[in-house]
Amino acid sequence: IITTLAIILTAPVNVSAQMTNSTDFNSQIIYLENGDYLETKIQSEQTKLPLSEISLFTRSTKQITKTKTSTYKSASGKSMWSVSITGTFTYNGSSAKCVSCSHSSKTYTTNWTIKSISSSKKDNSATVNAVVVHTYNNTCKTNINKNVTITCSKNGTIS
Fold it and tell me: For residue 92, which of 67, 132, 58 has the smallest C-alpha distance?
């Protein structure tokens, strides 16, 4: 019995898809009244599950990490700012869980600034909350509240 247990516990376990070098994008564009638009993309990347997450009874558990980025662009297509959320999820066909998340932001012009940004995870989703400020002629300021949520289904579908 002890020998059998030792073999089972030391046997390699393949629990996720292999790393991929290719990247694919799911994209959505929302046009605004002034001609500007928000473009949201999901970047795909498969990752391997850490050994600490492996259980003998959940060998089918897989892990996936994806980044969802929303970019504000002018009517001419010039990027003004972007906000991203990266979520790492585990899923097994019957449930999904967000195990970690991180956020990032970028401004491309001097009249846009990120006033605040934070992220959180709950159940099978992760959200970034940002306040972006537009300054015009050093006097007019417009605050834009932008939330981007990334969610994983029980089968590993990201939205």
Answer: 58
Cβ atoms of 97 and 49 within 8 Å: the answer is no
- Banded model confidence at residue 59, pLDDT cuts 50, 70, 90: low
Residue 104 has pLDDT above 60, yes or no: yes
pTM: 0.74
Which tokens go with 15? 């629990």
Please identify which residue in the block is written with the tokens 């997450």.
53
Residue 39 CA to residue 110 CA, distance in Å, equals 20
8 A C-beta contact, residue 132 and residue 152: no
Q: What is the 3-state secondary structure (H, E, C) of 114-153?
A: EEEEEEEEECCEEEEEEEEEEEECCCEEEEEEEEEEEEEC
Best CA proximity match to 62, nearest among 148, 157, 128, 127: 157
